[in-house]
Request: fold
Amino acid sequence: MMRFVFADSIDTIDPLYDFLADRNRLGRLVHRDDQYPHEFLEKAPYDGILISRAIVGDAVYPGKYSEAQMMRFRREGARSFLRYPLKKFPGSMLVGDCGAFNYKNLPEPPYHAHDTAEFYADAGFTHGCSPDHLIFDFDEAGLARSFRDVSDDVRRRYEITLQNASEFRRESKSIGKSFTPMGVIQGWSTESMAKAALKLVGMGYDYLAIGGTVPLKIDQIRRILSALRSALPSRIRLHLLGFGKIEDLAALEQSNVTSFDTTSPLLRAFKDGKKNYWVRTSSGELSYYTAIRIPQATENNKLKNKAREGSLNQELARRLETAALDGVRGYAAGKAGIEECLDAVMDYWAALNWDADPSLTRRSEAALRQRAVYSRTLSDRPWEHCDCRVCREAGVEAVIFRTSNRNKRRGIHNLHVFHTHLNEFRAEIA
Reply:
């Protein structure tokens, strides 16, 4: 069964967030009072969690965690910090990696085999990746077949990754049998990645993690997987690091991928221009809606800059903001028509984007396109057809693109939808 591992970076929400006032509960402390997706929802929307060492950080290379959080993570262990106990989530994976993207510009990784094994042991990970170094160049044409055909930097990164893997395999033996070391594959072509994989198997690895695939297209990933499966014994398990092409699960299943990690469902809730709110269609496919953007007039940087320049009256912006929120909420409650609601939303949209294009014709066309996109979201009322806690409690607020707590809630909804989709996919191929 292919398993979905969520790559977390303290993606928590305040369960008592006040949507109308747009504020957190009084006295709320981040992390202590907030909840992870597996706490907020009735059922965990993933099969495991991945934590990058670079996200946690340390005294030399700070990460996203505060110093107090970092120390607590190391002292109490990952499951305690994440509130993800094995007893409540039996069989769940807890995967560690070094977060190679965070140190991609350094000449070599800041982490070594010994201290990485120590980090995994202290935190109680079930699986951990060897320290790797990203290779960005992918030889699409297949011309770079040997070391002579690639740059010194690519060669060095390839060798560093394999050397670290060799040392990590030895160091990981001290962690114990409950821990599974994962050798990371880096390469500049399908052939070089297959050769690296064979070397990792020769070191004693039976679980390999494929790195460097984030910028690649799905056809390139398919070719890599095909090359690996052709070269490796069938007993070797494969994990795909940072797999964002999640609409293409069939490509992973065809190559017997054991697991993959991604943050895509959560991140697209607020980093994608269109695919913010996810649903499953009656035919079992993933479909998407665009969230209604109503930023805070007094907090949004774009609006504040306009106000400072004198190109937007901030009081007018506040009135337009309030009218847009009231319009969406009134429509959801059946107290206003959709055209009235869209008029209010688009008036605020125009204030935000009036100078985005100097052409009046193009601005008008852009406004018509945006209105049609928002009309689909509001007309279909998807929040009424979802039974997850986000939609039950937030209602139409789930499709309003506004503050971090709201947007991450929508991301948690997306995780729920995606995990449901994956479960159906797994049932079909079982």
Q: What stands out?
A: The mean pLDDT is 93. The chain has two domains: 3-262, 287-411.
